[in-house]
Amino acid sequence: MTSDIKPVALAPSSVAAFTEAMRGPKGALDAWLEDNNEAEVRAHVEAYARAVAEHNVKERDAEIEALRAEVELWRHKAAIHKYRRERLAEALRELVALGHPRDPAIIAARAALRDHDQEGKDG
Q1: Among 6, 63, 80, 113, which residue's beta carbon has the most beta carbons within 10 A?
Q2: The model's pTM
């Protein structure tokens, strides 16, 4: 193709014919190519490529936004989990401070607090 070809404005019916030829039976595109000059073919191919690229970008952007929203949801859930874990640890500490050291509930509370404190050191 030569570089001195000027862009051609595409009529909607022309775009529909090109799209139909591309998706049509074998040979339909060849026939369409023979019926149109080089400038028209170039314009249609470029317009088609732009439309495909724009569609792909829109899909990708939508997927990225959905993933960002999911990340925010998980961050929120993690913050709530951390808050609840700290409140439970406070309640267990109060229970241990008030209870008898040999009480099975107090022993279990101490074990849970050891696990909690170890998680805090690890992460």
Answers
A1: 113
A2: 0.52
